[in-house]
Fold this protein.
Amino acid sequence: MKTSVILSTYNQPAWLRKTLLGYIYQDTHDFDLIIADDGSGQETRQVVEEFQLNAPFPIKHVWHYDEGFRKSTILNKAILFSQSDYLIFSDGDCIPRNNFVSTHQQAARRNYFISGGYCKLPMKLSKAIEEVDIQSGRCFKTSWLNQQGFRKASGMLKIGLHGRLSQLADGITPTKATWNGCNASGWRSDILSVNGHNETMQYGGQDRELGERLMNFGIQAKQFRHRAILLHLDHPRSYKTDQSVEKNLAVRIATRNHRSTWSSHGIIKPASLFATQ
């Protein structure tokens, strides 16, 4: 099973560097990594080129011009660019625990997608994490987080449980398994079957709408929020607007009500969209 990790990013080179270090220190390197870049500048390109020279796995850079928040579009381009059977999706501001990739790979089953979890960190702690913390894995230890002043109970629970306890927690959590853009995985063929992401959707639930179409298509969700874990670094969200959230919610409601499995604004578009005006 060939695996690709697809990371979205936009002008966060310091966070991208920490994230890529997390993949350098994975317990497997049996994957390639595709950076889906929504129009970042030269600093991000320099980080990518640095890691391309030294990483123990292939890193590819898919980029388009900055025309505002177009995460869904660049993700669709990365999906098309990939040549793997299985795709793991995350963001360039999310440091993976050292078993992140192998956990997704081992969980992969036909007719399922995996819904992972994350621990959201405050800005001060996000800045404090250094390479040695990632390499040693201590930034994923509750004792270290506690020393840094982190007290969020739900995050500590996700980080602190291991083995059968984390599996048990996933089995009893009331949280619904959804397609989370920063931590989800599925078969490329299934994602193509629902035509990828809806490119009309901006920030606010656009990732979950893809998961809802997958479930309408017959793909079930498996809960791994306590087993496949990321540290989500803090950052401002200037692209978040009430209008985009409301618009996306309307699209999601329509997807659920109509049991839609296909987006006409996804990877394959109607010929009329390309017609000369």
Notes: Residues 3-264 form a domain with the Spore Coat Polysaccharide Biosynthesis Protein SpsA; Chain A fold (CATH 3.90.550.10). The two ends are 44 Å apart (CA to CA). The longest strand covers residues 220-232. Strands lie at 3-9, 32-37, 59-63, 86-91, 94-96, 112-120, 183-187, 220-232.
